[in-house]
Amino acid sequence: MRHVKALAIKFTITSIVLFSILTIFLTAGLGEIFFMSVLITGIAYVIGDLFILPRFGYFLAAVADFGLATISVWFLSSLFIGTGEFILIASLAAGLSITISESIFHIYMKEKVLNKQTYEIGYFRKLNQMQTEIAEEDDIHNLKPKSEDD
Question: Which keywords, in A-to-Z order, does the entry hold (predicted)?
């Protein structure tokens, strides 16, 4: 249920951003924007929020969201809406807007959706942090009781 709620929030954010930007720069229809929002939400949720965010943290997840959103909007706009001079500008604006809003969403994901155990294990595996114990070993079998002469 946590993932369904998170997907609904992410879909709402993506839909609002795409509807706001693609209707200004391009002549996109509601159905095209809806379909693009579904695809971008699904791909970004699996790659960015479930894979990158727990393992690498907020910054790399935001960078990945920017690249993924920009490339996805550019490719899908070229495919569904057509080529035009404003596709790159619209893609960059949508990518930046999605990244800014996703930064707040990442906090929600870490606090409410992702397991803290999964996050901690992934964090320690990433850094390869290992602990070693260093001690001097005494051979307890060869110890003699001290005599009074010593």
Answer: Membrane, Transmembrane, Transmembrane helix
d(CA 55, CA 41): 20
Cβ burial, residue 75 (10 Å; 0-12/13-18/19+): middle
Residue 55's alpha-carbon distances to 32, 49, 59, 126, 127, in angstroms, are 33, 10, 11, 7, 10
- Radius of gyration of the chain measured on its C-alpha atoms: 26
Give the global pTM: 0.71
CA distance 59 to 143: 57
**C-alpha–C-alpha distance, residues 146 and 150, integer Å:** 7
Dihedrals φ, ψ of 148, to 5°? Answer: -75, -20
Does residue 56 sit within a domain?
yes
Q: Which domain holds residue 29?
A: 2-126
